[in-house]
Amino acid sequence: MxxxxxxxxxAEAFDRGLKSRGAEPLSTRLLGKDDERRAAIAHSQSIQxxxxxxxxxxxxAMAAKDQTRxxxxxxxxxxxxxxxxxxxxxxxxxxxxxxxxxxxxxxxPFETVPVGTDEHGNVLTRAWGDxxxxxxxxxxxxxxxxxxxxxxxxxxxxxxxxxxxxxxxxLARLERAIGQFMLDLHTGENGYTEVNPPLLVKDHAMFxxxxxxxFAEDLFHVEPDYWLIPTAEVSLTNMVRESIVDESQLPxxxxxxxxxxxxEAGSAGRDTRGMIRQHQFQKVELVTIATPEQALxxxxxxxxxxxxxxxxxxLPYRVxxxxxxxxxxxxQKTYDIEVWLPGQGMYREIxxxxxxxxxxxxxxxxxxxxSDGKANRFVHTLNGSGLAVxxxxxxxxxxxxxxxxxVSVPKALxxxxxxxxxxxxxx
Length: 427
What we know:
Blueprint: H1 4-9, H2 11-20, H3 27-63, H4 67-103, E1 123-128, H5 141-147, E2 151-152, H6 153-160, E3 166-167, H7 169-188, E4 193-194, E5 200-201, H8 203-208, E6 220-222, E7 226-228, H9 233-237, E8 244-246, E9 252-261, E10 280-290, H10 295-312, E11 317-321, E12 333-341, E13 346-355, H11 359-364, E14 367-369, E15 377-378, E16 380-388, H12 389-399, E17 407-408, E18 422-423
Parallel strand pairs: 4-9, 8-14
Antiparallel strand pairs: 1-11, 2-3, 5-7, 6-7, 9-10, 10-16, 11-12, 12-13, 13-16, 14-15, 17-18
Helix pairs in contact: 3-4, 5-12, 7-12
């Protein structure tokens, strides 16, 4: 969310940022709204000042025993009371209207972010590993899982509908192993603190990280006033809402393995088969709370932390810098990590790591106390997947598949799988 004062002081940069995202310039409109707000505040203050002055005049009139003057002044005060109520109502309306508009505007991209309209404008930053080739025709994950009789979409659909799956036996254990491995890596080597946060949050938490009001249709609302989190980013980032963190605590790196819930309202017809796009899935989330000076370095650290998971699993991937038209609502810069899926013969997103500046912090009123004793400043927030567990399972099934339909377990996951080194169909 923007500070209208920043827009007033940086109107050209603000409009340029919106234009790079494919949006219309808004500074003139917003500053006009702000002028209305300022005028309403000034009018309210002038009425209040007049009331205060009249109150003193009434005292003087009463002391002089000038009842006629005192009565006339009291009549004026009564009229001003109604005027003040109307002025304050106008002031509140102007503030509310401006806040609604400001809350719906996406974050301003960094000047270094490539300008583009969609994914075709994204830029390859680096790649790791060679795309695996097989002597046989590579299968997609759902054919592998169903062939093992360990992945069941049909039964899941009977109880929950489309975009759900039941994983069983060693496949379920492999999925659990993936999440545990990721948590151990991020907490043991990458400096993150594990958190077990709520999966149900209220409106203000969703607003704080930018899911509300813009993306309500992509969320699951639970009566009376809860939302199921679409990502642990919501819970982890809101841990610092309405608080002042000491600078010595920053950067604060947090991670969580949670279930996530997405309505996928805007994805009709996309990835309808398989585990790529589910209503319920598990993900290891990475969130960092930082000072403005730390944020860019932390963005690189977060992205490398997510990459390290794929490197240890020996899964080929590439890192893309997203263009302005493909970035998320709250992002200033985003790296997408795309893993190679031989069954599909293409790279697919498995993580997005974004730096958001103070965009979310303003919505949450999250600040830090500077060590130099100067005024409190808004923190900068970052978030990323480290990684999506279901999509990592998909990548393992497709990259570690064998010609006979079995799947080898990656070396990094063997300590989590007991004696299981290969997943085969039972019997």
